[in-house]
Amino acid sequence: MMRILLLRIDWATLISALALIGLGILMLQTTSSPEAQGLESRAVQQAALAGIGLVLAISMSQIDYRFLKGLAIPAYIGGLIALCLVLFVGDASLGARRWFDLGLIVIQPSEIMKIAAIVFFAKHLSERRESIRSLRSVLTSLVIALFPVGLILLEPDLGTAVVFLCIWLAMIFVAGARAWHLVLPIGVGLAAFPFGWFFAQDYMRQRFVMFFNPSSDPLGAGYNVLQAQISIGSGGYFGQGVGQGTQSNLEFLRVKDTDFIFAMLGEQLGLVGTLGLVLFFALLITQAIFIALRARDTFGQLLAIGVAAMLFTQSFVNIGMNVGLMPVTGITLPLVSFGKNSLLVTLVGIGFLLSVHTHRTSAPFRQQSVQLVSGALTSVRSRIDPRR
Amino acid sequence: MANFQQHNKRGSIGYSHPEARPGAGGPPADGSRRALILGGAALIGNAALIGRLWQLQVVESAKYKEQALRNRARTESIHPVRGLIYDRNGEPLVRNIPIYSAWLTASKLSAERETPVLSNVATLTGESLQELQFKLDQAKQSPTKAIQIADAIPRESALAIEERQHDLPGISIRTAIRRSYKHGNTFGHIIGFTGPIPAEEVSAYQERGVLFDEHIGRSGLEKTLQSELRGRDGAKRLEIDAFGRTFQEVSSQTPVVGSNAVLTLAVNEQNAVREILARHLALRKQGAGVVVVLRPDTGEVVALVSLPDYDNNVFAKGVSNKDYELLASDPRRPLINHAISGLYPPGSTYKLVAASGALESRIILPESNIKCDGQLILKDGWAFNDWLPQGHGLVNLERAIAESCNIYFYNVSGGNPYTNLTGLGNRRLSEFERGFGFGTATRIDLPSEAAGVVPTSGWKNDAKLGPWVTGDTYHSAIGQGLVQVTPLQIANMYAAIGNGGRLMRPKIVDKLLNPEGQIVKTFQPELLGKLPVSHSHLRLLQRGLLQAVNGSSGTGTRAQSSYAVVAGKTGTAEYSGQRDPEGRLPSHAWFSGYAPASKPEYAFAVLVRDGGEGSFAAAPIARDIVDYLMTGQMPPLPQDRPDFVSPDRRL
Lengths: 388, 651
What we know:
By secondary structure, chain A is mainly alpha-helical. Chain A has helices at about 1-5, 10-30, 40-60, 70-90, 110-125, 135-155, 160-175, 180-190, 195-200, 200-210, 220-235, 245-250, 260-295, 300-325, 340-360, 365-385; strands at about 90-95, 95-100, 105.
């Protein structure tokens, strides 16, 4: 049984995840100081954590994801409590309280909450298949979703809040809500924008303005965006080479281990590297969508959609920021950026995907593959045979 | 077909059919369709990213490569230290003083740190916070360029700022050199001063590699020797990181150090000559005057004094408005070096030009006598007077020079309508004037030298002063009217008469040395030309000058020195201005000559502006100077001399 389940693992998902992690470690390795020994090196830390996360993800593929239903509500409530706590006892840095520093490990509740929220929304929405087409259900679900969003905005962390909203939107869309019921909250949100602007933190406004004109303040927030674009652009087709590149080596490119790791990759590996990275993300997200399509139940389907939405929103917003298509939000590139919480959480999400895939039907694997092949052959034959 | 349907129902490729999945929890078909829509949207999003990447890394890559290069490459100039200036005996006249200034690079100062950093800088430098804020706003215009926010700050403050570099991002200390002049007033006009580049010349200087904030020579030798003293910048090509720290040096070019200049003047002589002139001028109200002393053989400048003068240190430090107003508003114009830039009628010191012309052109013979009645009235009624109303009687050339007879020179220059003497005429006279070096600058190594005016009929016409008349020729012959000369030109003319006819280029810089003391360049004596006078005629002129000082009826007897035989000529050059109670025009007092007469070592010109009679105001100054130069001892005060005549006592 075990052997069969392992064979049923979605290798495309696993391999694209591994490739992205590998690219991240390659970049981190170039920025680690040569004196860093063992775990002092960020590359080694990231690799170690990726190992743990991959074991976790593969293990999860062997467990029926439906056990998560039982954890949905406690995890969601636990996550909300943690998000409250971090506002009061969290460690502040750069004007934001986003994490607990427990000495050995740092816990970032908003990261963990992503996974908890995906599980919770999947359970919640899959249990309301009948009523989801009513506006009332959509609004109820929105209110529940707004709890973590509000707490995260208070940290403040605009980017992660936006990611949460996108995950919710994607999941409720697939769950079957009427499209115009979803357009309504978006419309209200946009209408509320001027008020939001009034209450927004200065840094948020600045970032917003910066997005539209990065050169207006080349040394404030716009500096990083400008330098990121210079880095990526100067990479050309093949890049300056791994570990090369004046933009990253001479510190013109800032926060290059996390937010701007994509720009560093762009400078060092060129179009070949950036294109490869974007294609691996596209493959990963496409696989997640396919997994959702083949899920055995709505819970599994929504779980996969949630993970797909998380991966896409984060990668798109982060790369978009690096290339100047999106505002600066401080969202890291999943699997690639240095960040223990983010890496583990994303790999757990991959674990969900693998589990949904492994448990996609009750049919034994061999039978299913025979059906798959013969079905394909039949369809081919029927296309060849004009008398069909 | 049925078989296919069956496969389809149970197989995974039939996932779009909700009934395909066993169990009640199978996802709805609509959900699958919507999942595909999301997948499609994600692919479109990724396609957009790829499009943008193509634009950045292929289409615009060259531009970003260029920007990345500009990010990291910096050329840093290495400035040579400005050369010093020494007197003839090796005494330094200039010192280089290091000063510290604070600079701000806006790009390195983040917005949230502005306030604490500025207030720290304000306390350390003593600049007002408001001023610093203003400078910061200026600096933000070009954020990566450093601008100066405090000049000449104390050394302690500079060190404190350097020590606290980490607390003061964007603030840097630069050292610069400012000049300090040891003998401020004495050499002020000669050495001049350095200062900021005038706004309109910034680009011209930058083309020559001078920094926009560098102090350059603005006047005097600092200006004429600017490139020699400054040397040439070296350059370091650096690769820097985002914090401006040097990552590595790519290449470097060593600077060419500035030369040190050695002057022909000596501090003690210049000082003494200035002091002598100052003593004589102190006896007058608003005394102003010029002394030029040259070495006749080489043209070397021994002393060059223009009083009143100014302390060039005031300018080197950055002159205050008040100080400048005070200097600029003085009617005697102390900021101008009148020895080379002042233009005056030369008076009788000029008569030797007409004398030479008349002799060389055979208008007269040396021994020919001309009768002087004290007045010459032209046929049109214009009367031209001698300074001696009763006249000098019959005078030959030697006496005419010694007694400074005007009538004689009227006759030989413009002719006499009552005798058959034709005179030299304007054209030939002007040729001789030019031959004596007038009308052109002597090309001394100092800025703003005036050329003077040798009037001709053409010139007078161009200047719209009416047609040339015989009276104009008369006036030119005696150094009045339209003639304009500098004291240096007069001194140079007498040096040439004393040295046997060689008109030398006045030389003020003797040589340039490198910092090790080796000679880089020696300035050789340079001949401007020969006086247009034959040897024997020159001897006649010399005898006249000797008689003028030493003859019983000479006008320059007050120039007689106990230590050397002086030869020279007085001049009293009237100029249009307010007449005195006796109806006389104001006049500049001149005395010019050389000593010792037999073998001249010094030639000089003394001018007392608005000084009255040359014989009373200027000749005694020349005597004191000769006394000093021959003995090295300061002469007694002018009022302690037995022949002292107070300037108040008008004759």
